[in-house]
Every structure is written in structure tokens, then in C-alpha cells.
Amino acid sequence: MRDLRHPSRRAVLAAGAGFAALAASRSIAATDRDPERFERLRPIDAKRHILIRNATIISMDERVGDLARGDILIEGSRIAEIGGALNPRGARVIDAQGMIAIPGMIDCHRHSWEGQLRRINPNAPTLADYSNATHLSFATVYRPQDMYVGNYLTSVGCIDSGITTVIDNSHNTRSADHSDAAVEALLDSGIRAVHASGAPNVQDKNYAKQWPGDLERLQKKYFTSPDNSLVTLRMFSGVDRDNWALARKLKLRITTEFQGMQAAMALEALWPDRLVGPDNTFNHCGGLPESTWEILKQSGANVDVCPRSDAQYGLGEGIAAYQHALDHGLKPGFSVDNETSYSTDMFSEMRTAMMLQRAVAQNRRFSGESNIPAPVNVRDVLQCATVNGAACAGLADKVGQLAPGREADIVLIRADDLNLYPSNNAIGTVVQAADRSNVDTVIIGGRVRKFAGRMAALDMDRLKRMVEESRRYLFGKIGYREDLFAEKLPKLY
């Protein structure tokens, strides 16, 4: 067996490229109908074995438990065995001494198409300010090429930070070509994704009005082949009886932005007909009355909360609905929402959620209230970022836990890095201290996408060129003059 933990820099890059099984990139003329793109990943060899050796394992599976030191054997795309001193013949070995293995993290709600607009509006205090930088301006002039670039950049950014699954809430599908470009980017990146296809928020002359009818075409084109098993399709729609009926006719799950009394009233109108169920995932969930929380609980619907987004944009109560979900016996996932104001990582969401929950509980105690909720702990929030996220994605039987038979979505975190060493509590190290720089290895469906701290076979120079071309085009079309030190984004529409 080959030990790939301590190779030369040249060997690291070669191994990463081999693990990723990426073909050489090819250039295609960038037109509105034919975006420039990266080559599709080759299928995984079902007989290939990878052995992760000597890791501290946080499995998030009660039957497997946690191991201070253990091995994980991957066969093809799945975990074959977890235990001590495994010794399969011919396996490629990753020496994970000093590392913590966790299930790949899951982002339940990301508007991936906005990737090239990262931090353009860091001080945005309201949803209107967010929309100024997105739906009301740049979104209206997006080409299919821009959809591809945004989705690809977001996807590889997720992988780099240890997010192996993302629910791509695609609310700028201005034509069938835009939808295709978004899906192509997800497929090319190697991330596990749920493409939630939705209509653009601004439906102007540049909207072909192909949605939701285009969902059936999209489903047939991309989601009937087993070769595309990493990416699945669902509907992204507000509370709408007709849209939801179409989704269920096509056997698609449904994701909904869900905030406030108006949304609550619309949902309650559907509940008598039992049109809310486990195939629903609701984002945000702030400002809801008790009756709506009861519907969410009784229906078996999934919820994800947005620790940073709700605070950033003053949504609902301004504090994510994490505690409300817990109070009603729900198991929420976490989501980043977007990158136009802040970073891409799930570590920040976990820490923000934990600190906000404890701060609010202490504030209530200080104010003399009774029946104060117990403080959440590090395992609780890691469960939101893994197990609960898998349920929101409709993938609870595949990912979110490390166990034999599950898809091999695994993240290795270097616990002997300066900012983490010594690791006196493994889960505490992951939740309370780790960041993207500590993510050593990321495996998705048995394919290594990051190795020894570097993305495998990512042509960063080419990606930068594609991103810069997209930014120049979008900024020029809107007439935005870039200001690297702006405290407030000017009105762009």
C-alpha cells in the first residue's frame, strides 16, 4: 500500500490530480448559448480502494460511535468499513495521523449563481440592500456563462471549506440555457448538489418565462442517468398550490424561502388539504406564529436556519430561528444563504448559531424569565451541519454520517495545525476553532477533491480569468464602477 501522507510537493499535486480523476480542461467559445466550461469528472472506479489511516473519527452515527484512532476503508464511492488496523491489499493510503475525520458538511441553502459577487455588499443591513446588489441589478443581465461561472466558483469554494453537499437555490433561471449552465457547473465541479430550480425574482424582458414548465425538460436531460448521481433536482418555489402540484407530479422535492406572517398564512391555507410534507424544506423560518410551527412539526417538513443571514439583513426577529425549531422538536439544518456579504464556510455558521443561542438564553435569564432553554453544545451544532442537513437535502440515507454502506463524503481536518494544536476535545476543535485553512482532505463520493490542503487539479488561473470576464461584463452592463473600499453600495437600478 502506498502512503500518500508525506510526499514531496510534486507528488502531492500528482496524487491530488490522480485522485480527482480529472481530464484535461478544454476551452469552448464563450457565447450566450455555449458557456466556457471545465471538463466533466470521469466516473469512479467501483473497485478502487482508499484507506484513511489513524484518524480521530467523529462519525455522527450512533452505531459506529467516535473513535480516538481508527481507519476508514472506501471502496468505489462508498464507505466499506470503519475500524482499527484495517489492512486491505492494494489500497491507496492517506495517513491521517493528527487529523479529525468528520462527515462532509452540508449547506442547505445557497444562491450559488452569485459567486462572482462575493462581498460586494458587506455592510448590507436589509433584504432591499441585498436585492440592490443582486435581483434588481446584476441578475437582470446574467448570461448563461455568468450562471456557470457563479455556480462553479461557489461549488469549488464549498469543497475547499469542507462543504461536500449544497442545495443550490437557483432563483435566476432566466432561460433554459441559464438552467443548463447552472447544472453543468455543478456537475463539472464534483460537488454533491441539489439543484433547486426556480424563477428569477425580477421577471423582466430578459426572462424567457420557461419556468416551471422547463423542469420536465431539465429532469429528462440531466437527471435520468446514473452517471450524474452526485447532482439531483428539485423545485425552488414560494408557497404555491399549482407549482407544488407540478413538483409532486414530477416526483421532485420542494425548497421554499419562508419568512414572516404572509408566508405563514399562505402555508396554513394549504395545510387543510395536507399539501405540506416531508418533501418540503423551508429556509429561514423567522417571524412565524405558533400555529405554523405546529404545521411544520406535524407535517414532517424539514427546516434550515440561517445564523448569519438573518442577522446581516435584519430578517424576522434578526436572530435565526434555531431555538424556535428546537423548541418544537425539529432538527434544523444550517445554511450560508449567499456570499454577497460574508464568507462561504460552515464553521462560521456553527459558531454563530451556538453563540447566539447561548446569548439569547442568558439574556432571558438575566431579564428574570423562567423556563430558559438549555445551552446547545458542540455536538448539537455539528449535527445541524451534517445529519440534519442531509435530511433537508433528501439524502439522509446517503450522507451526513460516516458508516459502512454510506457514500464516502469525508472531510479531514488537521488538528496539529498551529491554531488547533493541542486538540483536547475533537468535536470542540472542529466546531469552536477550525476554519477552512485546516481542511486537509475532502472526499466526495469516493473522489478526492482536496488533498494535502490543496484543491485537486483545479485550474485556478483559468477560473480567475473566467470570473474576471464575467465581472467585467456584469459591471459594464449595469454601469457599476468598482470601489474596493465602499461602505455602501450605490443604487444600481
Key traits:
globular, 493 residues, 33% helix, 18 strands, 2 domains, 8-stranded parallel β-sheet, alpha/beta, Urease, subunit C, domain 1
What does this structure look like?
- With about 500 residues, the protein is α/β, with parallel strands linked by helices.
- It has 2 domains: about 160 residues, Roll (Urease, subunit C, domain 1); about 290 residues, TIM Barrel (Alpha-Beta Barrel), CATH 3.20.20.140.
- The chain is built from 15 helices and 18 strands.
- Strands 1, 2, 3, 4, 5, 6, 15, 16, 17 and 18 form a 10-stranded mixed sheet that branches.
- The chain is globular, with a radius of gyration of 22 Å.
- The N terminus is likely disordered.
Q: What is the number of E strands?
A: 18
CATH homology superfamily of the largest domain: Metal-dependent hydrolases
The CATH architecture name of the largest domain reads Alpha-Beta Barrel
- Supply the number of structural domains: 2
Strand content: 15-25%
Number of helices: 15
